[in-house]
Amino acid sequence: MSDTTAPPRPALESLVGSSATRHHVVGPRDSATAWDNDVDVLATPVLLWLSEVTAMDVLREEVTTPWMTVGLHHDSAHVAPTPIGEEITVTATLTGVDGKVLTFAVEARDSRAVILRGVHGRAVVHREAFERKLAERA
After folding, report:
1. How many Å apart are CA 99 and CA 29, to the nearest integer?
2. Whether 16 contacts 96, CB under 8 Å
3. Are 124 and 89 in contact (CB under 8 A)?
């Protein structure tokens, strides 16, 4: 399917204010030691990834083939360490839609405190066009 015959990009404005929550038990593979750090604690890249997939959960029913979302940016602060074995809760709330650009407020907590707070941006893109661009870069 070419871009010109694709169904229109999904209208997501009605989802502003919608949230998704994900629970995750921090395991050994989530440790900063897997990222060339010597501290056995939840790694920032893992926490950012969890905020991304939680944002994707907000849209899961609305953004379907031939559309998909891709991450654009993070402006988030990892503000407290979380030990291995602790359960965290990650929440993403869609706060804005500007054409294809989506903005989410993201927050993560462990049993003691907020551990991440920030903003995550995603874009709604046509999957086939994205894959064509990817193939050109391979």
Report:
1. 37
2. yes
3. no
As given in the structure block, the two tokens for residue 61 are: 């029913």
Q: Residue 56: name the closest of 131, 120, 133 by CA.
A: 120
Q: For residue range 12-71, list pLDDT tens digits in order.
A: 999 999 999 999 999 999 999 999 999 999 999 999 999 999 999 999 999 999 999 999
Burial class (CB in 10 A: 0-12, 13-18, 19+), 94: buried
Per-residue pLDDT, 113: 97
Q: Which residues contact 26 (CB under 8 A, 6 or more apart)?
A: 42, 82, 83, 84, 85, 86, 87, 88
- DSSP secondary structure of 88-105: EEEEEEEEEEETTEEEEE
- Give the residue among 54, 52, 45, 117 at the shortest CA–CA distance from 80: 117
The tokens of 89 are what? 């809760």
The tokens for 37 are 């750090």
Q: H or E stretch including 46?
A: helix 44-59
Q: Between the CA of residue 48 and those of 29, 91, 99, 100, 101, what are the distances in Å?
A: 15, 12, 24, 21, 18
SS3 content of the chain, % helix, strand, coil (to 5): 30, 40, 30
